[in-house]
Amino acid sequence: MEFEISRRDFVKAAGAVSLAASLPALGLGAETNAVGEWGDDAAGLPRYTYLGPVPFPLVAGKITRANLVLDADPFSGKITREYLPEDPFFLIGNYRFTLFTHVSGLYEILSGERAWGRLNQGPGMWSGANRAAVTVGGETVPLVGLTERAAQVAEKDFGIGYAQYRYKPATGLSVTRTLSVMPSAKAGEGTSAFVLSVALRNDGATPLNVTYTESVKAAYKQAFAQWDMDRGLLHATGNVVKEPAQVRCDFQIAEPRPLTFSRKGRMSRFEGAPPSLFVHVPSHAGADLAPTAEKDAEGADWIGVRAAVTLAPSEQKVIHCIVGYAYSQAEMERTVDTLTGGMIHSGGPHFQSVWDRAVPKLADEPDAALRREMRWNAGVLEQMTIWREYYNETIVPQGTVYDYQWGMVASNRDQAQHALPMCHTNPAIARSTLRYIMKRTVPDGEIKLDDLGFGWAPHSGRLTSDQQLYFFLLLNEYLRATGDASILTEAVSYYPLESAGTGSGLDHVRGAFLFLRDRIGRGGGHGLVKLWNSDWNDMFFWWPTSEAYNTVFDTSESHMNTSMAIAILGDLAETLHKFAKGEDAAEIASAVTLYRAELLKAFLHDWGERAFPKRMYFQGQAVGEKEMWLEPQGFTLLIPEVPDEKKRVLWAEIEKRLISGEAMGPKQIEKPVEKPGTHGGSRENGGFWYALTGPVILGVAGFDHDAAVALLRKQTFANYARKFPQYWTGQWSASDALDAAALPTEGLSQNIVYCAHAHAWPLYCYLRLNKG
Prior knowledge:
Radius of gyration: 26 Å
Number of strands: 33
Strand order of the largest sheet: 1-2-11-12-13-14-22-19-18-17
Distance between the termini: 23 Å
Number of helices: 20
Structural class: alpha+beta
Shape: globular
């Protein structure tokens, strides 16, 4: 489907310089002076050309390896995360496939439909294992790897749906290696594989005999957090099956203890039947190409292809193969047939015309750099989107360490936010996300927070108090953007799907509202929505308290929850009146309106004549009375009853207390102090957050459009490249949070790209500001 979104009156500020021009010299190496530059590929889609060094170096100055390294594994002592990995990576994928492509040429194949897992697990948490090499004139030249010269000097382009590497491995020989992924056509569908195309060209005056080999390690490993005591429980073994046109590795996992694996179709924390990894050679592969299988010195299986070609002077030959995974032979055959039929039978990248139709054009945006970045954001969200088999729904996961390292689909509040721009660019995914959240709701309105394995909701003490609010936030936007009220009348299952029955969408709304009003409730002291153990800021659960936990749980109140509820429930009552019919809808809307009025009265009374609202009441004390916390401020700016004059005062305080001196936007806490696990100025202790800045942008837009545009531009990748040209983790994606100016690691993050927040919130704000 092709989208054209009108610009109207979006850009009033001066035009920004191009992204390429915004990258000053880095001084990182003798052969390059920039991390990279943006451009458009042949299909007119955004493309990033990586120009930085391989491996990416440790940054000098105040940064040392000691303060870049985090989270040593408590069992092995090995480092599991770094602020600045040496092998930068990009994500390409569709709703059934996730592939990380590193600048070294290495790649990681992830399955995410059931449990998150790697099919070619390498030696570390952010690593895959694959090889490529050419042999010419009796010399073999490896093409991938951080220490390989050919990989270090190769030209590297990363676009929407592909990664391309161009090598000069020997005199007179050019090699172009392209990995292409086909986009999904609709929710729930997709091909779990990529097309590998290798163009071999003789640029010399004499014939060349060339042998090309490419292989991938067959090593399945389910993703677990490093602190998970069961992370070593599962051990996969492989059985390689080689056929004339295909080689595959079937994985088996022995059940380590009785009842570890659930019956088919029932929730399970553990993946007992991982997919098979395969390499297929299409009939039109383009050369003498055959599948290969071998074991390395450690006994690990490697599967791949080998081609032997003779190239006349100026001749080019292209070879193709398909690398992916499947849960059955039939699925494997469908994937191969679909990809083979969609290939353009050249060196690639393939499928770009289809990707161009899947990504909104934003044709009326005159700022080429801004248009390119917003199209990139839309493309990244499409590629991060994943179908979840247990729920038969398709969502945009948070990504970063949560999904891709820890195997944790966390959390519903995040998926709801990621789907906000999808209400405009791909409503089917927004609708599926709403159904997913409903299917994770138990009949009394509690929404399960996280998801592991195959639909398995872990039990923990993290009983957050805001999941229902984010559900309503997405529902409001979906109804406004699409007018599709059928989401309120169709039957949707409750959790767990095996036994909980169904209810209409409106039934789910009723249950979620009653859970918010009556289960979470309001604090007796000030009439605000209770905190429980945490609202958006789930670090409250970990911070020490001087009172008994059960007392804190039941008495603490959240100004963020309350401002959110006032802003969101007002919209909910309006959308129910507009889109829902019947007495049930009217009854719910009336109850919502009454409850909101009570909250508004309590909130305004508590705010009083102060310049900004407090943050919360915690352990019987007011937090954020004299020093500002960002969390409640954005939604406060969205409350229509607050006069513009008071909003301007609040905005001025945000600028002075939280934005001044910060590179990317408002920090979360004006004066953070050290807390366990989080340095002051980092993450939930004073870092910059896309999820908190987005509501501020939308709130400011109500009374100062130019200021909202300026704040949106401040959180772009273009601005990051200007402010932090020495880092790569922010040039084309980012984490959910960045360290603030108080730390020497300003601009870096304890979590690594890709995070959907960094793409969803800027795009959503752009679309909202653009549409008025």
